[in-house]
Amino acid sequence: MRESKIKKQERMHIVLSLLKKEYPNAECALHHSTPFQLLIATILSAQCTDARVNIVTPTLFTAFPDAYSMSKAKLTDVEEIIHSTGFYKAKAKNIIACSQQIIKRFNGELPLTIEELTTLPGVGRKTANVLLGNAFGINAGITVDTHVTRIMNLLKFVQSTDAVKIEMNLIPLIPQDDWTVFTHVIIQHGREICIARRPKCQDCIISHYCPSSLSR
Fold first, then answer.
1. Which residue in 77, 145, 156, 178 is the catalytic one?
2. CB under 8 Å, gap of 24 or more: what pairs does 118-124 form?
3. Is 66 an active-site residue?
4. Residue 216: pLDDT band by 50, 70, 90 thresholds?
5. pLDDT band at 2, cuts 50/70/90?
6. Which of 88, 162, 159 is CA-nearest to residue 124?
7. Helices of type H across 25-141
8. Are 10 and 193 in contact (CB under 8 A)?
9. Which residues contact 174 (CB under 8 A, 6 or more apart)?
10. How high is the pLDDT of residue 36?
11. Beta carbons within 10 angstroms of residue 81's beta carbon
12. pLDDT digits (tens, 9 = 90+) for 4-14
């Protein structure tokens, strides 16, 4: 039987409440000192682990700590530093171009809307949502990464691998004030319990509410 929107909202409320209690300190895993640095770290995190990005960014931000210095960086210098994050040529080109656009179009200040942010090179909805939610406390959308995609499909809240479709399906189910923390607790749950190749369903506090649970 197909689950109604109200039933989904009720189940999501329970799931989110349990996960917030389980992971009260869940937060953005990307290390940064400024909103600009979070933006760049998030761009680098595409197709790369947060742990790897955190290894690379101290060197990168020591050399180029802000939009102005990054906008003047040599492409080859940035490529060398971020090489291990993968797709380093495209990423280096994007973060330099992004920095230049921030200086040229926004007077060195980060824009605070998804619409403006996504006009910057290398910035999509996911990156914009990460920045707005974590650096500015603006819940403009829901960040959908691989953990969110996998776990929301397992929980049958969505049936899609398209990040934008998933976000649009989740928005009516989650209070806006929880949009940022939602992603944090789902990611932590995915790393600790709902592991892709070896889910610990027997240890999962939301297994009773998961149609895919092996322990039901």
1. 145
2. 121/93, 121/94, 121/97, 122/43, 122/90, 122/91, 122/94, 122/95, 122/97, 122/98, 123/39, 123/43, 123/98
3. no
4. low
5. confident
6. 162
7. 35-44, 50-63, 67-71, 75-82, 88-106, 114-117, 125-135
8. no
9. 12, 16, 142, 182
10. 98
11. 21
12. 989 999 999 99
Q: Can you tell me the distance from the alpha carbon of 138 to that of 65, in angstroms, rounded to the nearest whole number? A: 23
126 is annotated as an active-site residue: yes
The fraction of the chain above a pLDDT of 70, given in percent, is 99
- Intrachain domains 5-27+142-209 and 35-135 with the same fold: no
| φ, ψ dihedrals at 199, nearest 5° | -60, 135
Options 126, 162, 165, 177, the catalytic residue: 126
Amino acid at 26: A
Residue 53 — very low, low, confident or very high, per pLDDT cuts 50/70/90?
very high
CATH T-level topology, domain 35-135 = Endonuclease III; domain 1 (1.10.340)
Q: Hey, where are the domains in the chain?
A: 5-27+142-209, 35-135
| Full-model pTM | 0.94
CATH number for the segment(s) 5-27+142-209:
1.10.1670.10
In terms of residues, how long is the chain?
216
